[in-house]
Write a structure and sequence with these properties.
Order of helices and strands: HEEHEEE
Largest sheet: 5 strands, antiparallel
Number of strands: 5
Strand content: 35-45%
Radius of gyration: 19 Å
């Protein structure tokens, strides 16, 4: 009977995963092309979007951020806005203990203020210099919108 408990404990310990957390920083950021007086309208609406990705082989965070930001921009366009300002993001990568699995769960949360501007939206996330990737060829197996 004791052998069963030892085996269960080993299986449970192997199933635990580490996590890698990262964010764009403490303060929201606006792209330089949209910063400055008169670049955007005064009316701003806060919007948020969260996705849960299942990736295999590696994690290319800029691609996942870009996909989540595009979904957020679609929400903003539904509200009558055409640009995102005061943007921030955070993500958590669940790293399996057993490196042979190379199956990662990535939760991306993107926040911004939706506004109107005569200038085009830059179409890319802010603070990409703060991104940390998992090397390898990423294959997205699943994408699920989750409640923020």
């Amino acid at each position: 009977m004791a052998n069963v408990f030892v085996k269960l404990r080993r299986v449970r310990d192997k199933s635990k995963a580490e996590s890698l957390n990262c964010s764009s920083g403490d303060e929201p950021q606006t792209h330089p092309s949209l910063a400055g007086e008169g670049a955007t309208g005064r009316r701003r609406v806060s919007v948020v979007h969260s996705d849960l990705f299942t990736c295999k082989g590696g994690v290319d965070v800029p691609k996942l951020l870009r996909a989540t930001r595009m979904s957020l921009l679609e929400k903003a366009e539904f509200l009558g806005a055409n640009v995102l300002v005061e943007e921030s993001w955070e993500f958590t990568i669940r790293i399996p203990k057993d490196p042979r699995h190379r199956l990662y769960k990535v939760r991306v949360r993107y926040l911004a203020s939706a506004s109107r501007s005569s200038r085009p939206d830059p179409q890319k996330p802010v603070a990409l210099d703060k991104v940390r990737n998992i090397p390898g060829l990423m294959t997205i197996l699943e994408r699920e919108e989750v409640t923020p």
